[in-house]
Amino acid sequence: MLLKKNIPLSYVFGKIKLELILLTIYSIAVYFEHTQLGFSNFSIPLAIPGILGTIISLLLAFRSNQAYDRWWEARSLWGAIVNDSRSFARQVLTFIDTSDGNQEKLLIKERMIKRQIIWNYSLSCHLRKQDASQCLDKYISEEERNVVGNAMHIPLALMEQHGNDLRTLLRNKWINEFQQVAMDDTLTRFSNAMGACERIKNTVFPVTYSFYIHLVVLLFVLILPFGLIEHVGIFQIPLVVAISCSFFLIEKMAIHLQDPFENKPTDTPTTTISRKIEQDLKQMLAKDDKVEPAKELEGPEEPTFYIL
User: Fold this and answer.
1) Domain housing 146
2) Which residue has better confidence, 208 or 76?
3) Same domain, 153 and 110
4) Is 136 a domain residue?
5) Do the domain assignments include residue 295?
6) Which residues of 27-61 are buried (b: 16+ CB within 10 A; e: fewer)?
7) What is the mean pLDDT of the chain?
8) Better-scored residue on pLDDT, 149 or 116
9) 284: Cβ–Cβ under 8 A, 6 or more apart, which residues?
10) How many domains does the chain have?
């Protein structure tokens, strides 16, 4: 996740370092052939790169908007997961009446809330193609860990365990049918959010669209020096580098934003969000005098860099 407000120039130019070097060499080469090799009459009207630059601007604006929409949808889904996790914990704590001191009900109550903490971390790892089983070391029993850890889709397996406990609660009449429906509806929202995140993760941004835009940007970069050299002379070198780098930076920004679950600095901060959910659910557990506060889980580290 990008955390700092001030981005160092080394980070910015590091993204286009190769392009910056090649552009500088190309601009110098164009100036050299124009002044030293007798090609002084070869130039392009400035209107041509101007028109092409306008077209590229529109294409890059559309591309950036589409990439941001994907990132914002991912962030919105995890915002819904935060709300639903709190709602689910509240339902567990208020629907299951433990005033009679029934130890089995106390265990189920604690187990379901701790499992929800694990589910958020495991979903974060699952989306980033990390080992989701590393999140199972705390908060759940060894027996359940052995069952869930062998699953290919660990978040789904954890959700199934939620369903099993919900069935046990209804069968023993520790919750009524209306409460069961309400809790099951919350679990359904978890599944819907998980499926939507997987859709974003597995739907590749159209490669041909990105490739064609990149080709047009390269064409613009190649003809821009010939349009500027008659007007500004040697100053076309810094101008070409500055103008072209701005297009490359926007293109890179869109590429990074379009995949919000790749464990990159521009990712949706799923680990940080999971830790916030953990804190909230532990607070809710701590208010139940008969349930011991859960120990904090050390989840996978968030990629920490800078923030725009």
Assistant:
1) 73-203+269-286
2) 76
3) yes
4) yes
5) no
6) beebbeebeeeeeeeeeeeeeebeebbeebeebbe
7) 84
8) 116
9) 86, 89, 90, 93, 113
10) 2
